[in-house]
Amino acid sequence: MHEKTKFRLHSHDVPYGSGSGxxxxxGFPNVDDxxxxxxxxxxxDSSVKQGDTIKxxxxxxxxxxxxxxxxxxxxxxxxISGNLEVSCFGGDGQSDTGDYWRLEIEGSGxxxxxxxRIRLQHVDTSGYLHSHNKKYTRIAGGQQxxxxxxxxxxxxxxxxxxxxxxxxxxxx
Length: 172
Hints:
- β1 and β2 (23-28) form a beta hairpin.
- Helix content is 0%, strand content 37%.
- The chain is globular and about 40 Å long.
- With 172 residues, it is mainly β.
- The N and C termini lie far apart (30 Å).
- The chain is built from no helices and ten strands.
- Strands 1, 2, 5, 6, 9 and 10 form a six-stranded antiparallel sheet that branches. A four-stranded antiparallel sheet has the order 3-4-7-8, with no helix packed on it.
């Protein structure tokens, strides 16, 4: 959930009408929408197992639960603000470094926990996952833009909110 606006990271099988033409990613206000659920996954060829702790600095991938596509970014301009476009792309057997995000934990603590303030920085573009109050008017009417922003700012903070959380096991 985006800390400042309280909108959830959201996607559905609707492509952008410009830019990459890939599956759109937006901010959505409602709590109970399954299109706002994401699975945290390790990068390809990682020895990390489900339930291992995720420490600040770890590179992760986020897989959209319903469409199985990866949270992705690249140099295409985002539709409203012209920042870096954030989309969903690929699938279970198709992923690349455009799906890699570095976890940065804000404040004290070195391990990612529910409701902890975090930033996600895209590895390829160095853009931070960001949102703002600018909303779409047509296809995703009322939903707000999610984009990448190359500047580390107070308003690109996110929280893990609703979801299924596994017991923590320490990596060896």
